[in-house]
Amino acid sequence: MSLLTEEHELIRKSARDFAEKYVDPIARRMDRENYYPRETIKEAGKLGILTPTVPAEYGGGGGDLRAAVVVLEELGRVSGGFSLLVEAYGILFADAVNNFASKRQKDEVLPKVAAGDKIGAFALSEPCCGSDAAAIQTKAERRGGEWVINGHKMWITNGYYADYYLLAARTGPREARHKAITVFLLPRSRCVEATPIEVMGVRGTGTAELKFNDCVVGDDDVVGEVNGGWKIIMHTLDVGRVAISGVAVGVARGAFEEALGWARSRELFGKRLIEMQNAQFELAEMLASIETAKTLAYYAAYLYDTKSPDFLLMSHVAKLQAARLAVDVTRRAVQMEGGFGYSKDSKAEMFYRDSKILEIGEGTNEVMKYVIYKLLEKKFG
Ligand SMILES: Cc1cc2nc3c(=O)[nH]c(=O)nc-3n(C[C@H](O)[C@H](O)[C@H](O)COP(=O)(O)OP(=O)(O)OC[C@H]3O[C@@H](n4cnc5c(N)ncnc54)[C@H](O)[C@@H]3O)c2cc1C
């Protein structure tokens, strides 16, 4: 059984062509200068690459989750930063809006976001709370007929440049935890104070700290139901965990190809590095890891696309393993390149730094294990 169809392979081809033509040339600039690639985002918008799962009627790619994984894999192969930027943009923001927003909200936001004209960001994490997201402190209070939002978000990808925030806020007491959280679709205005954050990898993704000072929104800016935000957040992160596995496969693949090229050309002790058995074993380990991560990512996405009850477990298994394997493969690639691998001239070095966020963002490895154990308990008692 093939987990991907011919259509997925056509999507791969167009994503690969796009990645090589438009993303590869700016990947190092994103990394070195923390450059946010506004023009490349617009180019991606023209092809539906920015929002792979948003219906074509809104200008998105109209694909399923496997299509998104394939797109992110191809982008990640040339730039972990660009791939993560698209994952946060197209899945955490746009796919969530498509799944949960009202028709009015979708009609207003999705065409502009799919085209890359307006930027969307998913704002959940706070200085107090990332893994423990049910403890968030940003508040939305009822004043007159409106909602007034005050609070502080942290680490928000695309956050510095975003025109819209899908924002989680507390609409009841903190003790009520996840039962008193509402999601709002908040247009950017002067009430939002954004500060860029310098990060180790996936640079050029507009990571920001955000302060919301008396931001006023209406009832029609609530996404889903008041106090019903947790379901939206959890569903979005479960899907995001599969999507980010696609980023991991791509980053690992990019580093593997770098290492392979190096091993073929580097000469030492009178022969090429690739003729040494340890180098061959290293490349074999790397490829085995990539194939493992790829299969897990495609399988988890397939389970989502076919509405299987096994999806939840596999989304966490795929994220845990793909992230770990990406860090391991990129580390091996740096090692294979020796001193060059440690220099800023090596792309393996960039992939190594890019890979680390995959073990942290959208749930750390520890949180993945926590959820897997909870599901195990449910299944086996
Ligand atoms: C570059 C970048 C981009 C990001 N993009 C976004 C974004 O777009 N939107 C957004 O909302 N957030 C975003 N995040 C935030 C990210 O999701 C959080 O950083 C992550 O969930 C971890 O939360 P934390 O940083 O608060 O760490 P903490 O939750 O404080 O975790 C600290 C440590 O405790 C461990 N830990 C947590 N729970 C347990 C447990 N039950 N048992 C054992 N150990 C545990 C963690 O694994 C970790 O090692 C981004 C982060 C980064 C760095």
UniProtKB/TrEMBL annotation:
Its cofactor is FAD. One of its GO terms (molecular function) is flavin adenine dinucleotide binding. InterPro entries: Acyl-CoA_Oxase/DH_mid-dom, Acyl-CoA_Oxase/DH_mid-dom_sf, AcylCo_DH-like_C, AcylCo_DH/oxidase_C, AcylCoA_DH/ox_N, AcylCoA_DH/ox_N_sf, AcylCoA_DH/oxidase_NM_dom_sf. Keywords: FAD, Flavoprotein, Oxidoreductase. Residues 121-215 form the Acyl-CoA oxidase/dehydrogenase middle domain. Residues 227-374 form the Acyl-CoA dehydrogenase/oxidase C-terminal domain. Pfam families: Acyl-CoA_dh_1, Acyl-CoA_dh_M, Acyl-CoA_dh_N. This is Acyl-CoA dehydrogenase. Residues 5-117 form the Acyl-CoA dehydrogenase/oxidase N-terminal domain. Belongs to the acyl-CoA dehydrogenase family.
